[in-house]
Design brief:
88 residues; alpha+beta; 3-stranded antiparallel beta sheet; 3 strands; flat
C-alpha cells in the first residue's frame, strides 16, 4: 500500500498515512477536526518487479504520479497565493 503525507489545515500537524489509492484521510487525530487534512506532495515509491512481469513500465508510473499530484500542486499554489494576499 502507498504512503501519503497529510497536513492539518487547523493545527498544521504533519503525518504519514498508509492507505489504498482510492481512499482519503480527512480527520486530524491531534486537534480532532473533521475534514481538515489535505494531502501534500510526496516522493513516488516504485517497487522493482521481475522482467518477466507484464506490469506497468516505469515511464508510465511516472506519468501516473505526475497526474495524481497535479491537482494537489494546483491547490497548494492557490492556498499560497491566498495567504500572500491575506497578509497584505
Amino acid at each position: 500500500m502507498p504512503r501519503y503525507n497529510y497536513r492539518c489545515v487547523g493545527c498544521e500537524d504533519l503525518i504519514e498515512v498508509v492507505h489504498a489509492l482510492d481512499e482519503l484521510y480527512s480527520d486530524c487525530i491531534k486537534c480532532e477536526r473533521t475534514g481538515s487534512m489535505s494531502r501534500i506532495l510526496s516522493k513516488p515509491f516504485i517497487m522493482k518487479q521481475p522482467k518477466s512481469d507484464n506490469s506497468t513500465k516505469v515511464g508510465e508510473l511516472t506519468k501516473k504520479y505526475i497526474e495524481e499530484n497535479k491537482d494537489i500542486l494546483k491547490q497548494q499554489q492557490k492556498e499560497a497565493r491566498k495567504k500572500t494576499h491575506e497578509s497584505s
